[in-house]
Amino acid sequence: MANSPSGDAVLDRVMRLFAALEEQPSQTPGDLVAAARLPRTTGYRLIRELRTRGLLALTDGGEIVVGRRVWEIAQHAPIHRELRTAALPYMQDVNAVVRQTTQLSVLADDGALIVERLSRHGAVANPAEVATTMPAHLTSMGHVLLAFAPQRTAERWWAEHGDRAEAARPELRRELAEARRRGHGLLVGVINTETAGLSVPVLDPRGRALAALTVVVPRDSPEIPQFLMALQTAARGISRAMPQPTVPLNETPVVRSPQSPAD
Amino acid sequence: MANSPSGDAVLDRVMRLFAALEEQPSQTPGDLVAAARLPRTTGYRLIRELRTRGLLALTDGGEIVVGRRVWEIAQHAPIHRELRTAALPYMQDVNAVVRQTTQLSVLADDGALIVERLSRHGAVANPAEVATTMPAHLTSMGHVLLAFAPQRTAERWWAEHGDRAEAARPELRRELAEARRRGHGLLVGVINTETAGLSVPVLDPRGRALAALTVVVPRDSPEIPQFLMALQTAARGISRAMPQPTVPLNETPVVRSPQSPAD
Asked: Looking at the record, which segments are called Disordered (chains A, B) (predicted)?
């Protein structure tokens, strides 16, 4: 690093502070510095610098939280600006018709990342559940995301997760082939014994999944065929509403963020 | 800066890259480096480091965009996690009843910052309009945000913006006193000659505005009294749904981010 010997170190420390806030979104400065495994002086100074820039904020109760500036910048991320914005009206339509939890997700490094979730009555569910990931091999959304993934993405997923996933779900390859053939995924009682997950892909013009649209319904619901049609209709609307050309919403970072030890 | 002489510089450069992406959310690396006024080598290296951490991403078309990791972190910001999550179901109710653009905003450094906006038919409007700010002295949301602001926030706003605002809107103090007395703000034909803005505050338990809830309606609508009751009802629901104790959603950064020159 020619000009900025500590640039890497600063960014890694910043990422560790934010990762600690993802675990526990409101912490005293002391707890946060400890959770991020930063030296005390370094940690306090970095928190102050991030507050100055609005990336962190201090609550009335003296705890550090993620700052509004991060939220402002995030509005411009394609996952929000393109996918969620295109999808939300159609998700509201599905939610109004199906009256069960409706979810939008994308394939991320370690599973299916929930982008938006509407609960039964139109309320947004526990926000802790948005931006979390579910296991791809155990969810209907994961199945359609894998079944309709771009080839390179699917290959990378199988190389990284295939062995462990097939050990846990031996029928996975057959299920993905079925999801591909039928155009939807249906998993009954896997994550929750009382419910079924029903998912369809949101496809780009080349037939690759940009996202999965899912409803979680009672496992013995006789209306699953109707729900499927509602999902398929909405997924086509979302595809049409997405700006072109598409951005790689399923793209993983160039390199995984290092799990750097405390310095 | 004892341990990290270039920490400030790195963070300032990062902020300049993100600020440039707020102006133009998808740019070639070369254009982005130029827009952020960074030296070419420094800029390319920083973009690479930010991509490694998922804070930036590269589109299929070779352009740099805000990365998904920023979006994930932003889900934990109080403005999203607490305010928007509490408000969205009630905004949907207002939108269903009033059938006009429904907005949620907070008082920010330079105006009323739009947190969420639902359009007439339940669709989310142009995302460029979320996370932008409107002039506080010329909008009904700005009026209720100022009229019900915590005293320290109001004093700071008047010190910074008062002279310019009163020059542009000589009746401002009277309007704010009226908004305070009536519990709502109504501005007709100011931003758009054809429309009226009608806003109520979302109050914390001490009667201070956490946010403003607004509908934009045709200027001569005979239904404004009914719309006001819908807004007041929804605002009470949002107040009740907000987690306690409240965080300083109206807080500005400790120090304004410096407009640092190119290095």
From this structure: 243-263
- For B78-241, CATH number out of 3.30.43.10, 3.30.750.24, 3.10.350.10, 3.30.450.40 equals 3.30.450.40
Count the alpha carbons within 13 Å of A225 in the hemisphere toward its beta carbon. 1
Token digits for A109? 């490094």
Within 8 A of A16 by CB-CB distance, chain B residues are none
Any bridge partners for residue B117, and if so which?
B103
Strands B64-66 and B101-108: unpaired
Closest to B127 (Cβ–Cβ): which among A49, A61, A85?
Answer: A85
Question: What is the rounded CA–CA span in Å between residue B114 and residue B4?
Answer: 36
| Cβ–Cβ gap A89/B1 under 8 Å | no
Decide if A7-72 and A78-241 have a common fold: no
The partner residue sitting opposite B70, judged by closest CB among A3, A77, A252, is A77
CA-nearest of B53, B133, B120 to B92 is: B120
Given B1, B18, B89, which is nearest A73 (Cβ)?
B18
CB nearest B60 (choices: A58, A131, A246): A246
A62 touches chain B (CB under 8 A): no
In angstroms, the separation between the Cα of residue B241 and the nearest Cα of chain A is 11
In whole angstroms, what is the distance from residue B167 CA to residue A208 CA? 56
- Residue A200, CB-side half-sphere exposure with 13 Å CA sphere: 23
Give, in degrees to the nearest 5, the angle at Cα A177 between A173 and A182. 145
Determine whether A144 is exposed, middle or buried from the number of CB atoms within 10 Å of its CB (0-12, 13-18, 19+). buried
d(CA A176, CA A195): 20
Amino acid identity of B88?
L
Q: What is the pLDDT along chain A (263 residues), one digit of tens a residue?
A: 333 445 678 999 999 999 999 889 899 999 999 999 999 999 999 999 999 999 999 988 899 999 989 988 998 888 887 888 889 889 888 887 888 888 999 998 778 988 888 876 544 444 446 777 889 999 999 999 999 998 888 998 999 999 999 999 999 999 999 999 999 999 998 888 888 999 999 998 889 999 999 999 888 889 999 999 999 999 999 999 887 644 455 544 333 333 333 33
Instruction: Please report residues of A whose CB lies closer than 8 A to that of B249.
Output: 68
Segments making up each domain of chain A, as ranges: 7-72, 78-241
CB-CB neighbors (< 8 A) of B247 in chain A: 26, 57, 59-61, 65
H or E segment and range at residue B172: helix B172-182
Tokens describing residue B197: 């803005």
Q: Residues 6 or more apart from B179 whose CB is under 8 A from it?
A: B143, B144, B146, B147, B185
If one compares B220 and A231, the residue with the highest pLDDT of the two is A231
| SS3 of residue B106 by DSSP | strand
> Is the CATH number 3.40.50.1000 carried by domain A7-72?
no
Q: Are B254 and A69 in contact (CB under 8 A)?
A: no
ipTM of the complex: 0.73
